[in-house]
Design a protein that fits this description.
The structure holds two protein chains of two kinds. Chain A is an all-alpha fold. Chain A contains five helices and no strands. Chain B is mainly alpha-helical. A two-stranded antiparallel sheet of chain B has the order 1-2. In chain B, helix 3 packs antiparallel against helix 4. The longest helix of chain B has about 50 residues. Classes of the chains: A mainly alpha, B mainly alpha. At the A-B interface, helix 2, helix 3 and helix 4 of A face helix 9, helix 12 and helix 13 of B.
């Protein structure tokens, strides 16, 4: 609780907490797992389509699966790093 | 008078435009005639509704609004039941065009009505109620699966009686499907009545409409009825609570009873859930989040009432809610970020040479987009799975009563009651989680500017 909030009169129905709830922090990362899976599946299907197109099975499927996983990992890594405070970020 | 003239002109304009669009979709002469008749009736009803709204708006906006809505609903029902039968118009063209005319012109009506004066709360609850009605009318496209194959058997005079629909096939022994017919959508529902089963079955009509070679059944199903019931309950309870609250506020006293309970719920959701998570100026998202909360809560709770069923146990309903949430989140993002909204779609690294930027953008943009869509997807699945699973457990436990010798019935009964109580809690928790995540997502996209 901040000082500002303590200063507010008790029982004022329109006052509210200015800090997001702890669950909100979790909500941020809730979609990450599905995003990871979704990216792999998307790039896998893209690979299948390309393989059919050029008759190069299974080259693009393999590239797609690993590339999708790598891309998703990169995006998630970026997101997690952006949430760290700057001094910790330099240590990692 | 000026307002009335403006509204009349706009109403006629909108109606003609919509009628023209429909005349392109429906081709036969019969259907054209139906559209013309609908348009004429809609214009008259809308002007009458506007007159009532103007007269009552300064004194009692909620009453005026309620009368207007009821009048339009009544018109639609009477038109559907009587006029279509008597004048033998094609029902699809007539009803769809009528509903569209009324809906579109009702949307512009508030701009011409005189300003609402009384307490803010009643106006806000009016907004909530209106959005709930719109939500409920936004029927999700749904698969009409008639379960004619449900087979009932076994020790089961009781089961047979409780499911008269499966009666004709009930003779043959086999597995009893007590669960699926109760949790899936259907074209009939049960009402309490005084016969041996204590339930009468009411069959719902079929309104087949062919649009562009595709036949869609637009008639309400059990879950649609439950949604409308939830919406009506929301309106009645919230509006009466808001009015009681306003009345007590004038007297300088806190409200009592239901109004106090509703105030506690609303204030908790507003102060602890929506505002802290949405961030600065989050007040404008409070009505939306509260609408979602109460609508989902009432749908969840209606599933626990005898003869009721859970509309949120239908993936179409939860998907529709999630899509509405998704659109709201994206619009909130567009409003907060402006041009920067594109950054939430396209991945554009700033600290790299251009040769790296282009391939990275090409590869990572799909990943970002998938991240956008997984959130509402998870919302829809979470609500649907939680509500369905609870009901499956309760029904399975009730089924155990009939599977075992009758002596052991207390054990499953106690378990079923315990799970029922758990379900009561889950109803609240899931409505809460949906609202919490909605506000978290709105907050996330708004804050991604910096």
């Amino acid at each position: 609780m901040t000082d500002e909030e303590r200063a507010k009169p008790k029982g004022d129905p329109y006052s509210y907490r200015s800090e997001p709830s702890p669950l909100a922090g979790a909500g941020k990362y809730m979609g990450l797992g599905l995003q990871f899976a979704g990216s792999i599946v998307f790039f896998m299907f893209a690979g299948i389509w390309l393989d059919k197109r050029f008759g190069t099975s299974p080259v693009f499927v393999i590239i797609g699966v690993f590339g999708g996983a790598a891309a998703a990992f990169y995006v998630i890594y970026k997101k997690l790093m952006a949430d760290l405070p700057p001094d910790e970020r330099s240590q990692k | 008078m000026k307002r009335a003239a403006g509204f009349a002109a706009l109403t006629i304009g909108i109606t003609i435009l919509a009628a023209w669009v429909y005349s392109l979709m429906f081709t036969s002469a019969e259907e054209h005639r139906a559209i013309m008749i609908s348009a004429a009736i809609a214009v008259v009803v809308q002007l009458a509704g506007f007159a009532i709204g103007t007269l009552t708006m300064t004194a009692n906006p909620i009453a005026g609004w309620g009368i207007g809505v009821l009048m339009r609903l009544f018109t639609l029902v009477v038109y559907g039941l009587v006029a279509v039968r008597v004048m033998s118009l094609p029902p699809g063209a007539a009803l769809i065009s009528m509903a569209t005319f009324l809906f579109l012109t009702t949307l512009v009506e508030p701009f011409f009505l005189p300003a609402m004066i009384p307490g803010k709360t009643s106006v806000k609850s009016g907004t909530i109620a209106l959005s709930i009605f719109l939500l409920a009318f936004a029927q999700p496209a749904r698969a009409q699966v008639e379960r004619t194959d449900s087979v009932v058997s076994g020790p089961a005079d009781l089961i047979q009686q409780s499911m008269p629909s499966a009666g004709q096939e009930a003779k043959q022994p086999g597995a009893a499907d007590l669960i699926m017919p109760h949790i899936t959508d259907s074209k009939h529902f049960e009402v309490p009545c005084l016969n041996t089963h204590l339930a009468c079955e009411v069959h719902l009509p079929t309104w087949n409409v062919t649009v562009g070679g595709m036949t869609i059944d637009l008639a309400p199903t059990k879950h649609v009825l439950m949604m409308l019931l939830a919406a009506t309950l929301c309106c009645v309870i919230l509006i009466s609570a808001a009015r009681a609250q306003g009345r007590h506020q004038l007297e300088g006293k806190p409200p009592k009873g239901l109004a106090n309970a509703m105030e506690a719920l609303v204030l908790y959701m507003r102060n602890e859930v929506v505002l802290p998570n949405v961030g600065h100026h989050g007040e404008r998202y409070v009505p939306f989040a509260l609408t979602m909360f109460f609508f989902i809560l009432f749908m969840n709770l209606l599933g626990l009432v005898p003869y009721g069923s859970t509309a949120t146990g239908n993936i179409s309903v939860t998907a529709t809610l999630a899509i509405i949430t998704f659109i709201t989140v994206e619009i909130a993002g567009m409003r907060a970020l402006g041009k920067g909204y594109l950054n939430t779609i396209f991945y554009w690294p700033h600290d790299m040479p251009i040769a790296m930027k282009i391939p990275l953008t090409l590869i990572l943009t799909p990943v970002e987009l998938i991240g956008k869509f997984t959130k509402p997807f998870a919302l829809a699945i979470r609500l649907f799975a939680n509500m369905t699973a609870g009901h499956v457990i309760v029904l399975a436990l009730i089924g155990l009563i009939f599977t075992f010798p009758l002596v052991v019935f207390p054990a499953p009964l106690i378990m079923a009651i315990a799970i029922m109580l758990l379900e009561l809690m889950v109803s609240f928790i899931q409505a809460f989680i949906f609202t919490l995540l909605t506000s978290v997502f709105i907050g996330l996209i708004r804050e991604s500017a910096h």
